[in-house]
Design brief:
Elements lengths: L1 E23 L10 E11 L4 E6 L5 E7 L3 E14 L15 H6 L23 H7 L9 H15 L1 E2 L10 H7 L1 E2 L1 H14 L4 E8 L17 E7 L6 E5 L4 E2 L4 E7 L2 H4 L2 E6 L4 E12 L6
Helix pairs in contact: 2-5, 3-5, 4-5
Length: about 300
Amino acid sequence: MLYDLSLHMGYIYDVPATGARHIVRVLPLSLTNRQRLIAGSLKVTPHPDEQSNFTDFFQHPATSILVRNPHEKLDIRMQARVQVESQPVTADFSPMLAKLPDEISDSWSVEPSSPHHFTGSSPRLPETTEIADYARQWATTNLTVMQIAHAVCAQINKDFVYDPKATTVDTTPKEAFRLKRGVCQDFVHVMIIALRSLGIPAGYVSGFLRTIPPPGKERLEGADAMHAWVRIWCGETAGWIELDPTNNIPAGTDHIVVAYGRDYSDVAPVIGVLKSYGSQKTVQAVDVIPLKQQKMK
């Protein structure tokens, strides 16, 4: 599937900001046999005094910018064309939950995709007793790791209400879990903690979701902004799968990957510091427009 993407992120400050340094991660990745970034551009206004590109630990391209002079707003615009390949349906070769610790121990890799980076707590995901208790219902079931992942995804989708007004980007997973409301970030953080509490490696995926649904299909939740879903390690043979708890579906050709990480802190589209006071207003607009399908080379 071929898409044209556009993203606008704007920050409007009550008082002009100075010395603003930010890291921006918004361009889609190129992933072998999954998706290909054909072209992409990033424009920042006001024009940065310094701008450089680098690759982070999880192998994501990022852009560092510095705006020294006072500015009342910061405007970030991204445009890209990306091709997404449909993934084959495979059998469930994941182990039973009791066998997974042995498979994790047998993995000697410390590469970015190693399961060892996605167990236990991470910067924004501390161990949470309430969520662990919620997940314990699957601990003694006669299910494979992949089946448990699908079951947790479906249960969160059933128990939680998608409500953009209920939470903010700083809402903790514990708060979102008690509310049983929130946005994709909240659904994903709760699901990651639940899976990790069972010993299943899980991580955060940041990306885009198709804006215009295929004929006869309902529009998916979260398509008006950057989206998020969960990456789960299902053993050495099955490897990683990706599930979207906001919509209770596997990630497919409607999902375009920007970054992988342990939680939102690793993949935030814009992070940084600046000198100012007062509050700020944030605006975000996303369009993911499907184009004529072509064969990926």
